[in-house]
Specification:
By secondary structure, the chain is α/β, with parallel strands linked by helices. It has helices spanning 3-12, 43-51, 109-155, 167-179, 183-189, 194-211, 218-222, 226-229, 234-257, 274-280, 289-298, 314-326, 331-334, 344-348, 351-362, 374-384, 407-411, 414-427, 436-448, 455-465, 474-487, 499-515; strands at residues 19-22, 25-28, 31-36, 55-56, 70-71, 74-75, 77-80, 307-311, 336-340, 365-370, 400-402.
Length: 521
C-alpha cells in the first residue's frame, strides 16, 4: 500500500488508524539519546499500554504529519490499521493525482494560475463526493468487524487459538457463541437493513467477478486454502478479498432472514447454479466432497482423505453423521472418511486390521472408536505393537478410543436410553415401554450377580419380553438417540459435551492439523 496515500487519508480524515501506539523510550548507560522499546502487537500488551496512556484512539489524538511520528531514525509512534480498512483506500486512491496536458508547458503564467485554480476546484468537488463514498464504506466496515469473528474461521479455514486452552473446548465455546448471535440485531445496530445487506452482497459479488482475472477458475481458486490464495497479487488478490466481503454479507443476510442467496458466481445465472448440480452433482462445490472430487478431477487433480474414522457398528455409523452435522462440522469437507466394522466380532476377526493397512497405504491416519469388549481390547493392544512397511505404527494409542462400557452406556443416561426406546416403539406402533428405574434395577441385579451387563443387552431382553425386536431396529434406535443429542444444541447454555462430541472435535482438529502440513512421527 502507498504509505503517502495512507498518510494523506489520515490527515484528511478519510481513514484514520484505529490506534496510535506510542513506543516507550528508555535511557541506557551506553546511550545518551535513549532507546525505543520493541513493540509486541498482542492483545495483552496493547491493553497494558492503553492503561498507561500509550495507546490512543482517533478521538483522543489529532492526526499529524507522519514525519512527526519519528525521532531521528527511530519510529516513536506506530499507526495501526484493521485489515478491513483497505476497503476505505480504493475510493480515494487517486486523491493526490492531478493530470495536465502538455500545453501547460508552453502556457503563460496567468493561464497556468487559471488552470491550477480550476483543478483545485475540481479536486474539492471530488473530495466532497469521496467523503460520501467513504462514509458508506465506513458503515460496511463497522458491520464486517462485527461479523468477522463469526464467519472468517469458516470462510478462510483458519481458527486463531488461545495456547492456554484446549482446542476442543475453545471450538465448542466459539460454536456456541455463534449459535447465540442475533444477526438481525447486529445489522440494525450498524445502521443497516437486511435489504441494504442484500444489495451490498450483489454489488460486491459483481465487483469481485468483474475485477477477478481468474474469474473463469472461480470454483477452483475458492477451493484453495486461504494461505495459498493470499499469495496472489494485484487484482487477483483484491478480488479474493471482495469475495470474502460478499460471502460475509451473504451469510449475515441468510442468518438474519432465513432466506438463501446465490453464490457470487451464480448471481447472473437465471438457473441459480443448476449447471453445477448437473456437472458436479451438487450446487455446493465448496462443501460437498463428491462435487469437489469432480471439480479437481476436471483440472487433473486428485484429493485424498486425511483421517479414517473407524466405528464398531450400525448404531455408531447412523448416530455420528447426524451429530456431526448438528455440531456444524462437515466430515467430507475436512477430509474425514467414516467406515463401520459391522460389530465387535468383525473387528476381532481381522476386519479392523484390514482397514488399518488400507488407511496406512493411502497415507491417511486411522482414528478408531470401539466398545469395551475383552477380545477387542486384546486385539487392539496387539495391533498397536505392529508397524507399517514405512515403519509407522499401524494403530496409535492416542487415536484409539475404547468406551468404559459401550457407546450407549458412556454417552447416554438410563432416562435417555429409555426415551429413545419408547420413541422407537411408538414410531413402530408398538405398546412396548420401559422406564429408567426399570433399566437401573435390571443393571443392579446383574451387577449383584457378578455379571456386568451392557444397557443395550438389558434393553434387548426387555424389548423381547414386551414384543419389540431391538436388533432388527438398530438404525432407527440410533436415530432416536441422535434426536435426543441434537435437541440439546437448541438449549443455551448447554451442559457438558458428551464424550462422543469430544472425540469428534479431536478428529476435526487432527484432520485440520494434517491439512495444514502437520505430520506424525
Amino acid at each position: 500500500m502507498n504509505m503517502r496515500l495512507l498518510e494523506r487519508m489520515d490527515l484528511e480524515g478519510f481513514a484514520p488508524p484505529i490506534l496510535r501506539v506510542h513506543k516507550e523510550k528508555t535511557l541506557r548507560a551506553e546511550s545518551t539519546r535513549g532507546v525505543y522499546s520493541a513493540l509486541h502487537l498482542n492483545i495483552s500488551t496493547l491493553r497494558l499500554m492503553r492503561e498507561r496512556g500509550l495507546v490512543k484512539v482517533p478521538d483522543e489524538e489529532a492526526p499529524r504529519p507522519w514525519k512527526e511520528y519519528r525521532d531521528g531514525h527511530d519510529e516513536a509512534v506506530v499507526p495501526l490499521y484493521h485489515p478491513s480498512q483497505t476497503l476505505l483506500v480504493e475510493p480515494v486512491q487517486w486523491l493526490d493525482e492531478v493530470t495536465f496536458g502538455d500545453s501547460l508547458l508552453t502556457a503563460g503564467p496567468e493561464d497556468v494560475i487559471r488552470r491550477v485554480g480550476e483543478a483545485r476546484k475540481s479536486r474539492d468537488a471530488r473530495v466532497r463526493g469521496l467523503r460520501d463514498a467513504v462514509r458508506h464504506r465506513e458503515g460496511l466496515l463497522r458491520l464486517l468487524i462485527r461479523l468477522e469473528n463469526a464467519f472468517l474461521p469458516d470462510l478462510r479455514g483458519s481458527f486463531s487459538v488461545d495456547p492456554t486452552s484446549e482446542f476442543p473446548d475453545l471450538y465448542a465455546q466459539w460454536a456456541e457463541w455463534r449459535r447465540a448471535l442475533d444477526f438481525s440485531s447486529i445489522i440494525k445496530e450498524c445502521g443497516w437493513s437486511t435489504e441494504t445487506v442484500r444489495r451490498s452482497f450483489e454489488s460486491w459479488s459483481m465487483r469481485a467477478m468483474n475485477l477477478d482475472p481468474m474469474g473463469r477458475w472461480y470454483l477452483l481458486v475458492r477451493n484453495i486454502k486461504n494461505e495459498k490464495r493470499s499469495e496472489l497479487r494485484g487484482d487477483a488478490l483484491l478480488a479474493q478479498d471482495s469475495y470474502d466481503v460478499a460471502m460475509m454479507l451473504k451469510w449475515a443476510y441468510e442468518h438474519a432472514t432465513g432466506e438463501s442467496l446465490p453464490e457470487p458466481d451464480d448471481l447472473n445465472d437465471a438457473m441459480g447454479g443448476l449447471w453445477k448440480e448437473r456437472w458436479y452433482g451438487s450446487r455446493n462445490v465448496f462443501e460437498d466432497r463428491t462435487a469437489r472430487l469432480r471439480l479437481l478431477t476436471e483440472f487433473g487433480l486428485k484429493p485424498i482423505y486425511r483421517v479414517y474414522l473407524i466405528l464398531e457398528g450400525e448404531t455408531e455409523t447412523t448416530f455420528v453423521p447426524i451429530l456431526v452435522r448438528a455440531m456444524g462440522i462437515d466430515f467430507e469437507a475436512i477430509g474425514v472418511k467414516m467406515v463401520g466394522l459391522d460389530g465387535a466380532q468383525k473387528a476381532n476377526r481381522g476386519r479392523l486390521e484390514v482397514f488399518l493397512h488400507h488407511v496406512a497405504e493411502s497415507g491417511a491416519v486411522a482414528y478408531v472408536i470401539l466398545d469395551n469388549d475383552p477380545e477387542v481390547v486384546q486385539h487392539t493392544a496387539d495391533l498397536m505393537k505392529r508397524r507399517t512397511p514405512a515403519s509407522l505404527p499401524l494403530l496409535r494409542e492416542e487415536f484409539l478410543k475404547i468406551w468404559g462400557g459401550e457407546f450407549e452406556d458412556d454417552n447416554f443416561s438410563a432416562a435417555e436410553v429409555a426415551e429413545a426406546f419408547n420413541g422407537l416403539a411408538q414410531s413402530l406402533g408398538s405398546a412396548a415401554r420401559v422406564t429408567a428405574p426399570e433399566l437401573e434395577a435390571e443393571r443392579q441385579h446383574a451387577l449383584g450377580a457378578g455379571t456386568p451387563v451392557r444397557i443395550t443387552k438389558i434393553l434387548k431382553r426387555m424389548g423381547h419380553q414386551r414384543g419389540l425386536d431391538l436388533d432388527g431396529n438398530r438404525v432407527e434406535f440410533a436415530r432416536k438417540l441422535a434426536e435426543i443429542a441434537v435437541r440439546e444444541f437448541s438449549v443455551l447454555p448447554r451442559a457438558s459435551p458428551r464424550p462422543i462430541e469430544q472425540e469428534i472435535l479431536k478428529i476435526a482438529e487432527l484432520s485440520s492439523a494434517l491439512e495444514s502440513g502437520a505430520f506424525l512421527e
